[in-house]
């Protein structure tokens, strides 16, 4: 039993304003994994006050970038040393299969290294030559930290979401209040321990598990200068409205309903195998999951059959079992949500190829759903338009490339996507026409040097690399 009875505020473990601890339940069998304190508005006030005081005092803000980089490199090394423990904690509390959480540790290293390299090469201060040759004026352009950052993250991939915000915000010299989901209290408690060991100045970082009401209190706080949020589009709209009222800086990484376009010349076997990871990663609880599979009409049944065989071959069960590919949903209400969408798909008239709303046999104690594939789906159906956030795939037929692009773009979302083709140039031509923030060709993984984020209702702003680092800075121009 893991217990975090105190909150990590400003670099120290302090007593919470509410002494009642929250039980953290296992998605696998709903037993109690641990207990943790939860932040309330009074704790937010303490954390924001500590962040503001540290920022104005300049203990971290005025530290040279090279020293900030060295300290964050030390933190990343501490995280790497604890990779196995982190993967285990995340699997326990989220239900993510062990293969996914272990593979994610290498991704965290690549993500951090991309930010560190970007910080080393970043133009923290540069002098611009005048556009008028005879003018004596020069402009010095500086990149300075925004101030106090409220970073708010979801439950589905906690370490990745946390470090994608905390690392660049700290590299830029900001003070940070990280608000995490109650479900992640254990893994994020351990993140706080690592941040404590990294030795940041007092007040610079806080980690607060808290409910939605407390989260709204944080993002509305007058002493917060920037909000960095990952989560649902609905919540993102609310945060954007709150930020607009106070003219806070805001970056939003929101939902997705991404399309995987399988072109007629694609190797269907390879494309279907790629769907295994591109569409069903993290139990389908992933914003970048490519859950709309677009197949050419003359190869449609070939794709449907391949997906049926793939999904039925995947083991669903205990996330600690090395043979498990798909674990449980994180909470009973999320399990119910996914099952309701499967029922809706049947009611809408889609063909149920495999799966269904029933709970997998023998797994009734946990938050499990049966991985499901629907065929004969029109893109106007709700199961094709709404983010289900579970292992549910819809297969949509198209007539030609123009039709495929039209269907892919016929969505309020624009976060991710994929194109499969034997001809890379042909795939690139299609990828350029799809209105999403990232597109993977033939199953390529997401890179961390380039920017990541969404078009349309999938967000505002970008993360990763130099672009992601820049979102935590303000421009200052000094004329000489």
Key traits:
Aldehyde Dehydrogenase, Chain A, domain 1, 39% helix, Aldehyde Dehydrogenase, Chain A, domain 2, globular, alpha/beta, 480 residues
Class derived from helix and strand content: alpha/beta
Count of strand segments: 21
Do you know the CATH architecture of the largest domain?
3-Layer(aba) Sandwich
Global shape:
globular
Tell me the name of the CATH class of the largest domain: Alpha Beta
What do you see in this structure?
- Helix content is 39%, strand content 21%.
- The chain folds into two domains: 2-254 and 457-479, Aldehyde Dehydrogenase, Chain A, domain 1, CATH 3.40.605; 259-447, Aldehyde Dehydrogenase, Chain A, domain 2, CATH 3.40.309.
- The strands form five sheets. A seven-stranded mixed sheet has the order 15-16-17-14-13-18-19, with helices on both faces. The chain has a six-stranded mixed sheet with strand order 10-9-8-11-12-20, with helices on both faces.
- Helix 3 (83-94) packs across helix 4.
- It has 480 residues and is α/β, with parallel strands linked by helices.
Quick synopsis:
By secondary structure, the protein is an alpha/beta fold. It has helices at 41-57, 65-81, 83-94, 98-121, 158-171, 185-198, 212-219, 233-246, 268-278, 300-313, 332-347, 382-385, 401-409, 424-431, 465-470; strands at 2-4, 7-9, 12-14, 21-25, 32-37, 125-128, 139-145, 148-152, 175-180, 205-209, 226-230, 249-253, 259-262, 292-296, 351-356, 370-375, 392-398, 417-420, 440-441, 459-460, 473-479.
Q: Layout of helices and strands, plus pairs?
A:
Layout: E1 2-4, E2 7-9, E3 12-14, E4 21-25, E5 32-37, H1 41-57, H2 65-81, H3 83-94, H4 98-121, E6 125-128, E7 139-145, E8 148-152, H5 158-171, E9 175-180, H6 185-198, E10 205-209, H7 212-219, E11 226-230, H8 233-246, E12 249-253, E13 259-262, H9 268-278, E14 292-296, H10 300-313, H11 332-347, E15 351-356, E16 370-375, H12 382-385, E17 392-398, H13 401-409, E18 417-420, H14 424-431, E19 440-441, E20 459-460, H15 465-470, E21 473-479
Parallel strand pairs: 1-5, 8-9, 8-11, 9-10, 11-12, 13-14, 13-18, 14-17, 16-17, 18-19
Antiparallel strand pairs: 2-3, 4-5, 6-7, 7-21, 12-20, 15-16
């Amino acid at each position: 039993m893991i217990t975090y009875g105190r909150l990590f505020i400003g670099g120290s473990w302090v007593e919470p304003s509410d002494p009642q601890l929250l039980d953290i339940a296992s998605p696998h069998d709903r037993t109690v994994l641990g207990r943790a304190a939860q932040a309330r508005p009074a704790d937010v006030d303490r954390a924001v006050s500590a962040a503001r005081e540290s920022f104005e005092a300049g203990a971290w803000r005025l530290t040279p970038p090279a020293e900030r980089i060295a300290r964050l490199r030390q933190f990343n090394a501490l995280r790497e040393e604890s990779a196995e423990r982190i993967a285990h904690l995340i699997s326990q509390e989220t239900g993510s299969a062990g293969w996914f959480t272990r593979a994610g540790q290498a991704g965290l290293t690549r993500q951090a290294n991309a930010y560190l390299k970007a910080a080393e090469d970043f133009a923290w201060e540069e002098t611009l030559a005048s556009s008028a040759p005879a003018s004596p004026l020069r402009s010095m352009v500086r990149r300075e930290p925004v101030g106090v950052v409220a970073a708010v993250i979801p439950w589905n991939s906690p370490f990745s979401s946390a470090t994608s915000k905390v690392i660049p915000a700290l590299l830029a010299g900001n003070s940070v209040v990280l608000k995490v989901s109650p479900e992640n209290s254990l893994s994020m408690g351990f993140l706080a321990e690592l941040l404590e060991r990294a030795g940041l100045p007092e007040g610079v970082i806080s980690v607060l598990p808290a409910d939605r009401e407390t989260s709204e209190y944080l993002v509305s706080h007058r002493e917060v200068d920037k909000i960095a949020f990952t989560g649902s589009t609905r919540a993102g709209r609310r945060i954007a409205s709150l930020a607009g009222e106070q003219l806070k800086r805001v970056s939003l990484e929101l939902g997705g309903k991404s399309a995987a376009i399988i072109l007629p010349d694609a190797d269907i076997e390879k494309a279907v195998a790629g769907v295994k990871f591109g569409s069903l990663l993290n139990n389908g609880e992933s914003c970048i999951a490519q859950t709309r599979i677009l197949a050419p009409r003359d190869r449609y049944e070939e794709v449907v059959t391949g997906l049926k065989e793939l999904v039925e071959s995947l083991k669903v069960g205990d996330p600690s079992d090395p043979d498990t590919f798909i674990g449980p949903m994180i909470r009973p209400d999320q399990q119910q949500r996914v099952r309701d969408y499967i029922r809706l798909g049947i009611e809408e008239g889609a063909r149920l190829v495999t799966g269904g709303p029933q709970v997998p046999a023998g797994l009734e104690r946990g938050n499990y759903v049966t991985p499901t594939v629907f065929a004969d789906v029109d893109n106007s159906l709700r199961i094709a338009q709404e983010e289900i956030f579970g292992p549910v795939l819809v297969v949509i037929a198209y007539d030609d490339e123009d039709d495929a692009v039209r269907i892919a773009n016929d969505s309020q979302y624009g976060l991710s996507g994929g194109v499969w083709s034997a001809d890379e140039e042909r795939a690139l031509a299609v990828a350029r026409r799809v209105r999403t923030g990232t597109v993977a060709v033939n199953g390529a993984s997401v890179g961390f040097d380039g920017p990541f984020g969404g078009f349309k209702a999938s967000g505002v702003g970008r993360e990763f690399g130099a672009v992601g680092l820049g979102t935590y800075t303000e421009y200052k121009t000094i004329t000489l």
